[in-house]
Amino acid sequence: MSFSKDVKEELSLHLGNARHCRLAELAAMISCEGRMIICDSHYYLKLQTENIAVARKYFTLIRKTFNINIDVSVKTNINAKRNSTYTLILRNEKAIDLILQATKVHFDHPNIGEEAPEGHNNERITGLALGPADEVITQNVCCKRAFIRGAFLTSGSMSNPKKAYHLEIVGSDYTKAVQLQDILQAFSIDGKIILRKKNYVVYIKEGSQIVDLLNIMEAHTALMDLENVRILKEMRNSINRQVNCEAANITKTVNASVKQIEDIIFIRDNAGLGELVEGLEDLARIRIDYPEASLKELGTMLIPPIGKSGVNHRLRKLSQIADQLRENKEEKFNDNKGNNN
């Protein structure tokens, strides 16, 4: 089971005690995925999903809130890895009116080509997408939580946090996307909206904000699982940064040591180490004998010992002497070349 399905399974088991919260969650589910099917003079309320947890939650909300039963049909899709499609249809028009009135949901966008309910295959079918719920349904903070939960259940998805942080909720039109974005903003969740094909997607990519959203929806088990993943990721990233830093320091130390030894050898071959003052000569010989030693270790080998800064100062002096010898050698070479010409 995917992480997204785990979250939905947990959310499907959460049933608010307050009727207004159940109405808000139901309003989101109907607004996001509900369809009004019109067959000549009759109309039906339909919700279709491939997630049994979503179907179970929708059925339970209507049953517990209105004491109304709805028809449920299951169709196995042979061409889609034998996944099942769950279709929930409410045929009682008075019950439909009662639910839409209570959830403050209206329908306004015609879509032709909906599948007819069973027993009406020969009738003219028109499918109407339901519009956004009225803002009055989410006046309370608890109702905002329930609305987000219902929207995610029907139209949301979440990536496996081990791979990436990404949570999104798909809306059929811009108005619904903005409504959801505003509700998220009430909890300081910064949801972005993007147009994908014909849908408007509200998405979140910040790991900490996804954690906050799971807490808002009251998916506490999923929240803990995500936090565990985040902790492991941060530990790995911290270790990688430390290793990279140490590797960079080692590389820097090695390169510096190589340059120091090159300078000392150049001085030895072109002027002789005996020409150096005593402190520089001692350090030069130790540096050649112990190429892998740190500055601190070099300092302890000298008599009398000196600190790291003192060693660094003397090595810079040796480097300056080597550079001066190189310049003198280059000038002499150029002078000889000019005389020969």
Short description:
The chain is of the alpha+beta class. The chain has two domains: 3-218, Endonuclease I-creI (Roll), CATH 3.10.28.10; 249-335, no CATH class.
Largest sheet: 6 strands, antiparallel
Top CATH class of the largest domain: Alpha Beta
The percent range for helix content is 55-70%
Query: Treating each run of at least 4 consecutive H or I residues as one helix, how many helices?
Result: 11
3D shape: rod-shaped
Domain unit count: 2
First-last Cα distance: 85 Å
Strand content: 15-25%
Integer average pLDDT: 85
* CATH T-level fold name of the largest domain: Endonuclease I-creI
Strand order of the main beta sheet, please? Answer: 3-4-2-1-6-5
CATH level-two architecture of the largest domain: Roll
Q: Using DSSP, what is the number of strands?
A: 10
Which residues form runs of ≥5 with pLDDT under 50? 109-116, 120-125
Secondary-structure element pattern, one letter each: HHEEHEEHEEHEEHEEHHHHH
Radius of gyration: 37 Å
Instruction: Supply the helix-strand structural class.
Output: alpha+beta
Could you outline the blueprint of secondary structure elements for this entry?
Layout: H1 3-12, H2 19-33, E1 34-39, E2 42-49, H3 52-66, E3 71-77, E4 83-90, H4 93-103, E5 105-112, E6 125-133, H5 141-155, E7 156-158, E8 167-171, H6 174-185, E9 192-196, E10 199-204, H7 207-217, H8 220-270, H9 278-289, H10 295-301, H11 308-340
Helix pairs in contact: 1-3, 2-3, 2-5, 7-8, 8-9, 8-11, 9-11, 10-11
